[in-house]
Amino acid sequence: MNTEAPSSPRPSRLERIDCPVCNGALFKHLFEKQQEPFVSCAGCGLVLINPRPSLTQVAGTYDSGYSQGYIKKAAKKIARCRRWVRRAARQQGPGGRWLDVGCSAGFVVAAAEEIGFEAFGVELEPSAVEYGRRELGLANLAVGTLETQAYPASFFDIISMYDVIEHVADLNRTVAELARVLKPTGIIEIRTPDVGHWSTPKDLATWKEVKPSEHLYYFSQATLCRLFARHGLHLQRRRLMFKSALNCFFSRGG
Which of 114, 127, 159, 226 is deepest in the core (most CB within 10 A)? Predict the structure, then answer.
């Protein structure tokens, strides 16, 4: 397995990036799926698609219909979100402001409101936000990205990103904004597929979490923590998962 910068002519729809975790430019080619190359950073081990779809293409994935399968299971999803919210609230304490990034139809937002939080959500897919506003009565849902909302600094007590960060195109811009809007005493909960989990297949090409044009990054605990540390956010605790997922809580404290 050769260590090299991503090479060979690729369709113009793909763009090359340096590693968002360590700024490295050397990568090991792992495999290709649907004409997209999956590589690991030679410097830190982050697995990613590189070259990758353009930002326009990535955003287009969420324009319409992406969340419809999720919404069809609304009752089941709301029950699950209640469990997630109560667990995070026990970690941080009741009340305050909650932000769910990549909120889909707002099931986490609804669950947080139920236990007394002033809850907000931001989501790229307009139809999912419209569903949450209409069917769940959620006024604080916004269409767009975290960076386009211009929330005040030090505004949120809890920020959640459940199965979202692997989709984010500009990781450092997003994590910097998470740090900016988090209260000094707040927490950020991240859940994402775990490339280092014992149950993750050694042949990553067979892993069910490998999704071209959708999951752009595949983190281990080490690479996720290194990314967040760049922005002054440090691992507070990790919840061990039976399935191949990372569930980590970050705060501004060391």
Answer: 159
